[in-house]
User: What shape does this take?
Amino acid sequence: MQRPFVHPAVDDVSLESILYALADPVRLEIIKRIAGGTCAMNCSTAAPADLPKSTQSHHFQVLREAGLIRSERRGTEVVSVLRCTELEKRFPGVIGSILKASDKTKKKI
Assistant: This one.
């Protein structure tokens, strides 16, 4: 039997945990890919293709525990969605600002 995913309640999500999770460039890229999609995204599609599955799992676990994504199993796949609405209510403008700033930084390089 597979373990259920743990998702913190939005009231338990801290700004520190969000910033920690997004400080890693791989996790930031995963969030950008999920945010750019129109529906729930398969984890293997959202993660960089060159990462081993164990490393992908670790990054998704950090993102889930930080409260940034919600994941669910659909058959043999795991799909994730960004918790946009919940996070926007708790921390207005933070996620959008981080994503926007990361795009500007990438363009300057």
About this structure: The two ends are 46 Å apart (CA to CA). Residues 44 and 52 are 10 Å apart (CA to CA). The mean pLDDT is 87.
